[in-house]
Amino acid sequence: MLRAAVLLACAAAAVAWRVADDSPYPLHRLPTLYELDHYDRCLREPQGLYCSGRFQLTSEKPSPTFNLIKKISGDTSMFNRSFVHRGVCVSERCPSTEVNSTWRFEQCVQKQLDKYRLQGRLESYHCYTNTPERPPDAPERMFVGALLLILFFNFLGTTYDLITYGEGKSKLLRAWSVRANWARFTATYEDGDKRLLNLKPIQGIRCTMILFVVLAHTVTIDHYLYSGNPIFFEKILHNPLTIILRNGSSMIQLFIVLSNFLYGYGTLIYAKQHKLRLRDLPLRILNRVVRLSPVHLGVVAYAATWWKRAGDGPQWDSTVGAESDICRSKFWLHAFYLHNLFDSNNHCLLQTWYMAADMQLFVVATLVLIVLEQRRWRPIPVLLALTVGSILLNMALAYYFDWKVLLYITSPENIRSLFTKVESFSAYYIKPWGSLPACFMGLLLAHIHNYVQETDYPITKHRFLTFVYHLMAPLCLGWICLGNLLVEYKSPLFTAIYLGLERPVFAFLACIFILYACNNVDSYFRRVMSWRGWQVSGRLMLSVVCLHWCINMSGVAGRRTLTDFSVFSVAGEALSTLWWSYWLAIPMTLLLEYPFLKTFAAFFS
Predict the structure, then answer these.
(1) Could you report the per-residue pLDDT of 413-440, keeping only the tens digit for each?
(2) CA–CA separation, 32 vs 83, rounded Å?
(3) Is the pLDDT of residue 7 over 50?
(4) 71: CB partners within 8 A, 6+ apart
(5) Which residues contact 24 (CB under 8 A, 6 or more apart)?
């Protein structure tokens, strides 16, 4: 463990040293990308006016400075220097009796740009004064009402459970007992069904993967902020040691594989005693909705209402405020899990695209399982054909629409804009067909695992697969790092093939590990993933996934000054986000997720 920590520290130091190099461009000749005046001091004045906004730079006459700006803006490894971002205390810098705050802001920034012989056109802005905050509107009052109702139900259920000493007959009331839900949350089920006990490594895999998800989202959010050293992100994204951030999106497919593997395997166990029927589809979808929606919609509802009021600052409205408005406009799309299909260039809680895709693939998986059961087709060849077919489909679509994997399109400016109007992201990455091969591979894995469990098939006799299993971590990392070499090949045919294989190859490696680990083939990594502590923390995963974006954004969007980033500051921010996400996930799981699940079970048991 100490050796791993030393290696990690050395890698971080190496990255930090590499990103300290100077820019290849004379940036000192240009206006700085970000500037911020003192926010609180400005608004202490009775007539204080503070504005922040984004300006597009132009030049009316031929200018060496503007030529340099155009040259840098054409380099995708750099931020677009044809835009500058300013936070200005207008009342202090440019006193005036003019009532038009937008005009005053533009003129104030233009004075700064005159020395560069450039003109700035205001693209977007927010202005702040000492005006009182508006009263809560209807959606905000509804959120508070729903929250109080949930707390009341928990109080009622807990009181009933305590009075009846846990032996009350009302399943509906006991579903809302915090004491009973805590017992379920902390249980390890060591004496449970052996088939389910074999799945213990899965919780460890989930908890490990969420570390990389939070780290990647931390880097994404930090691109939003007014930075004192934007060159840090311009350099770090093209450092070979940070390939996992640029080409690690395929790791999300592990969650898709796990979701469909667990669902498929549970359905196969159910099918041994019950017949799968098409008319059961609505109830299965409803069960899935109840599983995800309380937590998912609870966080989205907060983001759409009170999140905007949770802080302030010169960067708050352009980050949290803007996303909160999107959440309000897309709430019903989230409610029906369609937000990745419609208005997909505007993101409310970026990570929730996965839940929409998972729900859509759940419907596909259910239909496939029902058809396989009713038609009595051989499931493994059919699922194998569907997997290959979906891979070829994505290759064909990528070739036709010129889609590329994130490795090709990851740039500071694209990250800062959350890949707005980047078709490869909105039309492939967050869409269900982009994860369709992983869905079929999860179902295929469920059938293979079920066969191995029922027949005691000795999977270790396949020496090559066993060898791959023991080298799983370096092979997964190697596949991601291979992108450093493949990114040089940019022909349409090659990029289409690479897009079609990038996610499925990682999903295939994950399937091998899950199959062997869940059939008790020993390895060091399996022992780590089977640690008892993962069983408890893994139950918080849904809440952690939903919460961490809000927590991270809230922690940084209220900063009053330019932020100087470093490898260690980003890592510290990610760990802090993870820490608070887990702590806040506990009450959300106990007071919201479990009660709704048990209420549904009480009605349909």
Answers:
(1) 999 999 988 999 999 999 999 999 999 9
(2) 10
(3) no
(4) 25
(5) none
Sign of the dihedral through C-alpha 71, 75, 79, 82 = positive
Q: Are residues 172 and 225 in the same domain?
A: no
Q: Which residues contact 529 (CB under 8 A, 6 or more apart)?
A: 200, 201, 202, 203, 204, 205, 208, 517
Give φ, ψ of 55 to 5 degrees. -120, 135
Same domain, 253 and 297: yes
User: Tokens 């940070």 label which residue?
Assistant: 242
Lowest mean pLDDT among 332-346, 455-469, 489-503, 545-559: 455-469
Cα(287)–Cα(289) distance, integer angstroms: 5
How far is the C-alpha of 74 from the C-alpha of 484, rounded, in Å?
22
pLDDT digits (tens, 9 = 90+) for 234-279: 888 777 767 777 777 888 999 999 999 999 999 999 888 888 888 8
Q: Cβ contacts of residue 224 below 8 Å, gap of 6+?
A: 315, 318, 319, 416, 557
In the chain, % helix, strand, coil (3-state, to 5) comes to 70, 5, 25
Q: Are residues 161 and 200 in the same domain?
A: no
Look at the chain and report how many structural domains it folds into. 3
Helix H or strand E encompassing 145: helix 138-163
Alpha-carbon gap, residue 540 to 547, rounded angstroms: 11
The separation between CA 191 and the C-alpha centre of its own chain, rounded to angstroms, equals 35
| Structural domain span for residue 30 | 26-128
User: Do 222 and 278 lie in a common domain?
Assistant: yes
pLDDT single digits (tens) 35-51: 999 999 999 988 899 99
Within 13 Å and on the Cβ side, how many CA atoms surround 264?
Answer: 31
pLDDT tens profile 533-588: 888 899 999 999 999 999 999 999 999 999 999 889 999 999 999 999 999 999 99
Considering the domain architecture, whether residues 176 and 194 belong to the same structural domain is answered as no
Residue 438 and residue 570 in one domain: yes
49 phi and psi, to 5 degrees?
A: -135, 120
| pLDDT at 273 (0 to 100) | 87
Round the average pLDDT of the chain to a whole number and report it. 89
**pTM, entire model:** 0.92
Cα–Cα dist 569/555, whole Å: 13
Strands 50-58 vs 34-36: parallel, antiparallel or unpaired: unpaired
Q: Give the helix/strand (H/E) hosting 79.
A: none
Q: Are 309 and 242 in the same domain? A: yes
Question: Does residue 562 sit within a domain?
Answer: yes
* Angle formed at CA 73 by CA 67 and CA 77, multiple of 5 degrees: 135
Residue 459 maps to a domain:
yes
CA 206 to CA 517: how far, in whole Å?
A: 14
Which of 124, 121, 123 lies closest to 58, judged by CA?
121
- The secondary element (H helix, E strand) that includes residue 283 is helix 281-304
- Read off the amino acid at residue 321: G
The sign of the CA dihedral 526, 528, 531, 535 is negative
